[in-house]
Amino acid sequence: MTQNETAALILIDWQKGFSDLDYWGQRNNPAAEEMGAMLLAHWRAKGLPVIHVRHDSTTPQSRLHPDHPGHAFIDFAVPQADEKVYGKLVNSAFIGTTLEADLRARGLNRIVLCGISTDHCVNTTTRMGGNLGFDVTIAADACFAFDRKLPDGRVFSADLVHDVALASLNGEFAAVKTVSEIILG
Fold first, then answer.
1. What is the pTM of this model?
2. Residues 6+ positions from 173 with CB-CB distance below 8 Å
3. Which fold is adopted by the domain 3-184?
4. Average of per-residue pLDDT values in the chain
5. CA dist., res. 84 & res. 89, Å (int)
6. Cα pseudo-dihedral 38, 43, 46, 49, rounded to 10
7. What is the Cα–Cα distance from 109 to 132, expressed in whole angstroms?
8. How high is the pLDDT of residue 1?
9. What's the sign of the alpha-carbon dihedral 21, 31, 65, 96?
10. Where along the chain do its domains lie?
């Protein structure tokens, strides 16, 4: 049995609203969706546990508000009937949900994360998962980030934001791997 055979795949915020770059700004990793789809297809083919997390924004004008079409999952990440969905109001999938209790009840202590955005919800969920004692892996090429701007006007590219977020998590809170490395286990 490989390590992945006891891991849950958690897809974070693969929602249509993130495709509105006029709203969010520039992003990196245009292959993230393809890599996420590959990882999800692998998990489903193996019959391994798949979990979906979506952001349920409380801000009415947000692309992720439940009344906005952007709240919906993107095509590759639409949950199947046997796949649990958690709605969250904050960056961490563990806050305000039963995710931790449900994982523990199923005896799942390994989690593989992918999704949007690397430096926000993936980062926060990774840190909390690590702090809660889960063995966390991030599929680096199945995540993406957006450009970020400081109040003084400096802009950091999405590539830099993505890479720095992953570097700060690797070895401390998670193992950062590619989809190929995860699949080949």
1. 0.95
2. 126, 127, 129, 130, 131, 136
3. Rossmann fold (3.40.50)
4. 95
5. 17
6. -170
7. 10
8. 30
9. negative
10. 3-184
